Amino acid sequence: IEYANLNWNATDWLTLRGGVLPHPLSTFQEQLHPAWINKLPDKPLFAMEEGGIVPESTTGFEARGGFRTDIGKFTYSAFVTNGPSLIIDGDEAGQLDLRDFNDVNGNKAFGARVGYLPLPELELFYAGMYTNVTPSED
């Protein structure tokens, strides 16, 4: 499943959602990834399926929203998802397994994203995620 989630608009500035989500760390994954929008021949390097640093989707919960001010629009997101595991065998040893549909190691990933849109076409944002990565066997 690429993504399937339920959204609840709690207020005009807060939406709660859960399920298999496009990963909130990246504007590309959330807004530009679908094939009917993305007409580029390749994905950006950070979003590649092999070796990318931001997974396409994740399983978890997110609180997100935004509000307008006189100087532009501000957006925010806070999320809790299944954490990645460390691959310890084979050719991919030492890499992260970002496919987190099943929580194999019990670790959760916590993250947030804040953004500012001075113009409707331009978003400046900062995002981060924290998790404890252990092999799935441990």
The number of distinct helices, counting runs of at least 4 residues, comes to 1
SS-based class = mainly beta
Largest sheet: 6 strands, antiparallel
Secondary-structure element string = EEHEEEEEE
Low-confidence stretches: none
Residue share in helix:
under 10%
* 3D shape: globular
Termini Cα gap: 27 Å
Radius of gyration: 16 Å
Question: What fraction strand?
Answer: over 45%
Beta strands, count: 8
The residue-averaged pLDDT reads 80
In terms of quaternary structure, the protein is single chain
Strand order of the largest sheet: 1-2-3-4-7-8
What topology does this entry show?
Blueprint lengths: L3 E8 L2 E9 L4 H6 L24 E13 L2 E11 L2 E2 L9 E2 L10 E12 L2 E9 L8
Antiparallel strand pairs: 1-2, 2-3, 3-4, 4-7, 5-6, 7-8
Annotation keywords:
138 residues; globular; mainly beta
Question: What's the quick description here?
Answer:
This protein is mainly β and 138 residues long. Helix content is 4%, strand content 48%. It contains one helix and eight strands.
